[in-house]
Amino acid sequence: MYYEAYLKDLEVRRVLYWSTIFSVISAISSYAFAVRFNVLIGVNDIVFILLTDTLFGVISLAMNTLPTLALFAKITPTKIEGTVFAFLTGTTNLANSVLSPMVGVWLNEKFVGVTADDLSKYKDLCLIGIVSSVLGFLILPLIPLKSDIVYWQEKREEKERLQKAEGITETPQGEVKKEVLKQAVPDTGDNESKGTSGEIQEDDELKPLIQ
């Protein structure tokens, strides 16, 4: 509801920019929890975790996931929407469920060494999280603006009109097929007239023999 009311008409790049900022703030809050800053200001651990996780979880959904899905819905060509959506969800799940934990475990085992029995260096992992969150600003220029989307949609529609006028169709797999337009040859009836004249000629030749 928040995205529908306030964020739907904004530039996706701008929304993702603020989403990255909130992601950095979330990483900083994790570092504050690791150094026990919440105890210093008199906030209970459970209350601090619930507030930060709930708040930034909702912000992440409204300002990251939904704008990305809306962007792909706008730039996806016709007839391959299902394929692109499956690719998007698959890569998202791969990144969140496989690659992100794998990289985190590798960094911890290689450089930090936090275990269940030794959490003394947990704050170092939080610092790595802050740095990785800041890296999100590097890919923001790759996000297209609304004007870019409209431009490429018009170019695609113009290309489709030209292909349709030339009898060229493009399949969802990217194969180009050219339709051959057959011109109908008018039937002048020459074959029938030839056959009829032949039959009349044969009858004329047989008449003297019959007589």
Structure description:
This protein is mostly helical. The chain has 2 domains: 2-144, no CATH class; 146-175. The protein has helices at residues 2-7, 12-34, 37-40, 45-75, 81-112, 122-134, 146-165, 190-210, and strands at 168-170, 176-178. The protein has a two-stranded antiparallel ribbon. Helix 2 packs antiparallel against helix 4 (45-75) and helix 2 (12-34) runs antiparallel to helix 6. The longest helix has 32 residues, at 81-112.
Characteristic key phrases:
211 residues; two-stranded antiparallel sheet; 71% helix; mainly alpha
Query: What is the overall shape?
Result: elongated
How many H/I helical runs? 8
| Physical arrangement of strands within the biggest beta sheet | 1-2
The number of domains: 2
Helix/strand order, N-terminal first: HHHHHHHEEH
What percentage of the residues does DSSP assign to strands (E)? Answer: under 5%
Distance between the termini: 103 Å
- Total beta strand runs: 2
Catalogue the unreliable spans: 179-186, 191-202, 205-211
Secondary structure layout plus pairing:
Blueprint: H1 2-7, H2 12-34, H3 37-40, H4 45-75, H5 81-112, H6 122-134, H7 146-165, E1 168-170, E2 176-178, H8 190-210
Antiparallel strand pairs: 1-2
Helix pairs in contact: 2-4, 2-6
In short:
The protein has 211 residues and is mainly alpha-helical. It has helices at residues 2-7, 12-34, 37-40, 45-75, 81-112, 122-134, 146-165, 190-210; strands spanning 168-170, 176-178. The chain has two domains: 2-144, no CATH class; 146-175.
